[in-house]
Amino acid sequence: MVYWIWLRQLKGIGATIEKRLLKHFKTPQAIYEAEEDALMDVEGIGKATAKTIKKSRSLDKASNLLEVIRKKDIKILTYHDPLYPSDAKVYPEAPTVLYYKGNIRDNSEGVAIVGSRRCTGYGKQVAIEAADYLARNHIPVISGMAKGIDGYAHIACLKAGGYTIAFLGHGLDMCYPKEHIELMEGIIEKGVVISEYPPNTKPRQEYFPKRNALISSWSKKVLVVEAAEKSGALITANLAKAQGKEVLAPPHEMYSPTGRGTNRLIAQGATVYLHPSQLLEERESIQTKSLESKKYKGREVEKPFRELMPIEKQILDSFQGSIKTIEEIEEDTGISQVELIEHLSILELEGIIEALSAGRFKYTVPGT
Amino acid sequence: MASIVKSFSISGVDGCLVDVETKTIDGLPMISIVGLGDTAVKEARERVESALNDGNYEFPQMKVVINLAPSDLKKSGSHFDLPIALGLLMETGQLKTKKIEAYGCIGELSLNARLRSCTGVLPMTIAAKEAGITNIIVPKDNVKEASLVKGIRVYGFDTLKEVVEFLEDKKEYMGNQEEMVTVSEVDPYRVDFKEVQGQEAMIEYIVIAAAGGHNLLMVGTPGCGKSMIAKRIPTILPSMTEEEALEVTKIYSVAGLLRGRGHLIKDRPFRAPHHNASTNSLIGGGNNATPGEISLAHNGVLFLDEIAEFGKKTLEALRQPMEDQIVTISRVKYTNTYPASFMLVAAMNPCPCGYFGNDKCRCSDYEVVKYRQKISGPILDRMDIQKYVQPVKFKELSSSTSGKTSQELRERVEFARSIQKKRYDRIDGINCNAQMGHALIKEYCQLEAEGERLLQLAYERFNYSARTFHKYLKVARTFADMEASTKIRKKDVAAALMARDLEKEGAAMMVL
């Protein structure tokens, strides 16, 4: 193991060269022990590089780091580990060593859900619905544990009992953003947090694009929920496109600044995301299917069927598919608020209407 | 023999009898006041000396010892000036009177020998009456306040000279001039619930809160009318009984907030401290451990606007007084107990930006949860009713129809309170539904079968704790009382279940 870390720590050698070396010498130990001439047999390694490798033939730094990693309960995933997904290896820049906390399961490629930090209620809803759906279908939800969309995707997945992977742009012995510390613990318990950066690496702007690349390389599909004109989510989308993965984006209002990036993705050929089932199926099959025919219902509540009272019918009719406050219902039905309190409470308890935040109610007509 | 003049001291909100003993001894001219007086008491010597000079009396050129008995009780205030001056005059033979024993004296002296009003006159007068004293001499400005106590003759004077002449029987007392204050029945609050447009459902819950004494938390976007509603809550509270009014007046008298008013406080207090308030200003304390906002709101409403902006420590300090309805302020040198039975009304925004649930809100659930956590669980737990206030629509703002008047609402509140009064007649310390403990809830919150089924459904669906369960029962009890139903009906339960918006929302938050 210490040789792997030594290899990773070599200056002036990127993931591509590392992999060529590995291919040639089979194990990092062999690279460590190789002579200059043997090293120069590998394509792309000149005299200077070979000299540097030779010069840095010391395991002190690597074993120190290994010590720290063991102490901090961080595990290491090497390129040769069977748990390293083969799909992820397709990406030429795939790191030879990854640090992780939690459990990497077999078949860990999943679907990435990414988006802006300052998200709208719409984006939040899309992210939660998608993550919930994936979790129920046992597909790992992959994201970056940032505020906003990323966070909601992880949480919704965990709440639905799913498996989730978070890629971080810093060492695993810290948490960024800080308020996600509980979330990080939750992910470690039920999923895994992965980083290519050794412990003690503080988050820096330039680390995040690399993390985004990892997100897309481990995913079969990338759902960009919400992205403004310039955002990290768009970087992920572009990398995914370059890696040949399907990029999906829900449509946003034309003038909405928060959805400008995603709308442009659609214009550039990303799949229009209209239903979570698109995250499971092959690309082609979707166009042939009528999307209107099925609507994802989310958590189904057992509805005790009973005869509705006329006044209740009147209340339900007034909804017409929109979200309403008690005052708006009063306006539409002419029933006084004082009287409405009782009926709304009962309807909500029986799961016929849904109480949303800030005192609003929602009624979905069954069967639509 | 030492001359003795009776006066009083304040401890907490109660007065107690103090004998001011004055004795002249041969020795170098000096005056010493003993008996644990504070600085205001010690400084009396300067005021008295000047006042005696001004009144053409002679200040004794001897050693003078003044003792405030009981000597182990801390005393504070400037109202000992008059008894000290009278004692000196008697001791030096400049005032000859036999009737002083039947009189209590309080009053501060000015350097020109005039009497100035002082604080705490009401509790001191009560203490005088309880001690069997039949007459009390007070500064003229305090006559009205002292006269609130029945069964004691109050004499008000302007100057030291008048007092001396009266005690020497040189002048008859002219009697208290009945000031012809035309107490027209003007609404003391000057606000009315009819000015609140819309918000019917909210007002219904406010009526319930007022009727059952439930604490109330209003959540809403900036400018939706939280403060407007809160200001009108005292107008629907039942009027205070004579006893309650006297309690409140006593507290205000001790706090020195009665000067000028001088009459019984009949309106329920409404206190709205700014969120910058310190713990001591809220709970009581500081110099002489004076009553804080919670005691000033006794029998009334304590309104904490923007409760999330209050200091955490300050809010936590409310827990114990809310439970016990009294607050004991302990300092190394003294301990004061003040009553603090108030209805807590609080208002806050739902999230940092204030527009939660609105399209323009970009607060993440973590931020929302963090913001709400500023109010700790135990405090939130004491809020039986937590409702969203919806912003008013333009249509309602511009409509000419007005809502129910405070008068109408108050009648409903008083009706429900009368039922509760009957119910809790035998039980000490319980006046309204909000104060019920577990045993009482079991006894008085009988459910109809339909209501029980509904509550059961809610219990299973939302995984309520036993504690939350009891909260709903208490609120449902009040709903039933509004219509004089002995058992809690289905509709009462349904309405009560809608009383805690925030709790439901907390469960739906996307946080781990």
How is this structure best described in words?
The complex is a heterodimer of chains A (368) and B (512). Chain A is an alpha/beta fold. Chain A folds into three domains: 2-71, 5' to 3' exonuclease, C-terminal subdomain (DNA polymerase, domain 1); 110-293, Rossmann fold; 310-362, Winged helix-like DNA-binding domain superfamily/Winged helix DNA-binding domain (Arc Repressor Mutant, subunit A, Orthogonal Bundle). Chain A has helices spanning 2-9, 15-25, 28-33, 36-40, 47-55, 60-71, 86-89, 121-136, 149-159, 181-190, 207-217, 232-242, 260-267, 283-288, 310-319, 326-333, 337-349; strands at 75-78, 97-102, 110-115, 141-143, 164-167, 192-195, 219-226, 246-249, 271-272, 323-325, 354-355, 360-362. In chain A, the strands form two sheets. Chain A has a nine-stranded mixed beta sheet with strand order 1-2-6-5-4-3-7-8-9, sandwiched between helices. In chain A, strands 10-12-11 form a three-stranded antiparallel beta sheet. In chain A, α1 (2-9) packs across α6 (60-71), α8 (121-136) runs parallel beside α9 (149-159) and α11 (207-217) packs across α12. Chain A is elongated and about 90 Å long. In chain A, 42% of the residues are buried. Chain B has 512 residues and is α/β, with parallel strands linked by helices. Chain B folds into two domains: 3-167, Ribosomal Protein S5, domain 2; 193-431, P-loop containing nucleotide triphosphate hydrolases (Rossmann fold, 3-Layer(aba) Sandwich). In chain B, 37% of the residues lie in helices and 17% in strands. Chain B is built from 22 helices and 18 strands. A five-stranded parallel beta sheet of chain B has the order 11-14-17-10-18, sandwiched between helices. Chain B has a four-stranded mixed beta sheet with strand order 1-2-4-3. Chain B is elongated. The interface between A and B is large, with 45 and 39 residues. Chain B: InterPro entries: AAA+_ATPase, CHLI-like, MCM_dom, Mg_chelat-rel, Mg_chelat-rel_C, Mg_chelatse_chII-like_cat_dom, P-loop_NTPase, Ribosomal_Su5_D2-typ_SF. Chain B: Belongs to the Mg-chelatase subunits D/I family. ComM subfamily.
